[in-house]
């Protein structure tokens, strides 16, 4: 008798064995982002912090003397004469962020839900058109619009809406209009993404269960889109706190902001150490403000969740029969 040989097992195709794992760690993919973060954020902030402990040598020397680090420039930066500027900056930034949210919320919802898919790209392009123009040029354009001799003032006087030239230029109201225009797209885009990614079935289910449109929006749509709301508010509030171009062009001396105060120390007085101390104070001011409003938001969310808490009844008990 002859023994039959067992057939040799053929190796499985490469497609069945699964993809070959790479030996390169996935964490390396984040290296470009970390390099960008270190070069363009961490390093400049570190230099600003370093210069803030120095002292101005003389009017013609820009680089501070940091041979004997001290907190003297922070003491000068806490001068009460600067407090009105920081207070005005916070007021303009909070009102500007709130106005951007009020305007962008219904527009982003309409764009993501009501506008047909084939027209959304065009509408988003129109929203982004202002970003194709330089920030300074856009602000100068509003300077021409709000001017007492501009076409808006002339048109409103011709229509009888106002009886004297428009008085918005070189005022805080003019600065408020400018910042809302300049930063509104930064609020619209994250809100649009949040609304666009939402499953329409959730809204339909809410309506089928008897909820009104307003209740569906406030209890279903808005809570799900809350990450987009928070992202938009941060994207508007943080750069708005440091904006000084809008304040210079549209507010003149009456609309000065903290960013303008910091820039003047670097450009006009050449006191880089005091300007650095003010910049560090502004950064801390922004962080404290964001932290306070984050705590307020968490408290409001906890209150809303406790109000919406549902108590289930045991139907198997005698009372439920």
Describe the structure in your own words:
The protein is an all-alpha fold. It has a domain at 72-255: MetI-like (MetI-like fold, Orthogonal Bundle), CATH 1.10.3720. It contains 14 helices and no strands. Helix 4 (83-114) packs antiparallel against helix 11 and helix 13 (258-267) runs antiparallel to helix 14 (272-307). It is globular, with a radius of gyration of 29 Å. The termini are far apart. The model has no long low-confidence stretch (mean pLDDT 81).
Detail the topology: elements first, then pairings.
Elements (H helix, E strand, L loop, with lengths): L13 H4 L13 H21 L20 H6 L5 H32 L2 H12 L6 H11 L5 H9 L12 H25 L3 H9 L4 H12 L1 H16 L3 H7 L6 H10 L4 H36 L14
Summarize this structure as a short list of keywords or feature phrases.
65% helix; mainly alpha; single chain; 321 residues; globular; MetI-like fold
Q: What is the helix fraction of residues, given as a range?
A: 55-70%
Mean pLDDT: 81
β-strand amount: under 5%
Please identify, by name, the CATH architecture of the domain at 72-255: Orthogonal Bundle
Number of helices: 14
Which parts are unreliable, with pLDDT below 50 for 5 consecutive residues or more? none
β-strand number = 0
Topology-level CATH name of the domain at 72-255: MetI-like fold
What overall geometry do the principal axes of the alpha carbons give? Answer: globular
Radius of gyration: 29 Å
Distance between the termini: 80 Å
Structural class: mainly alpha
Order of helix and strand elements from N to C terminus: HHHHHHHHHHHHHH
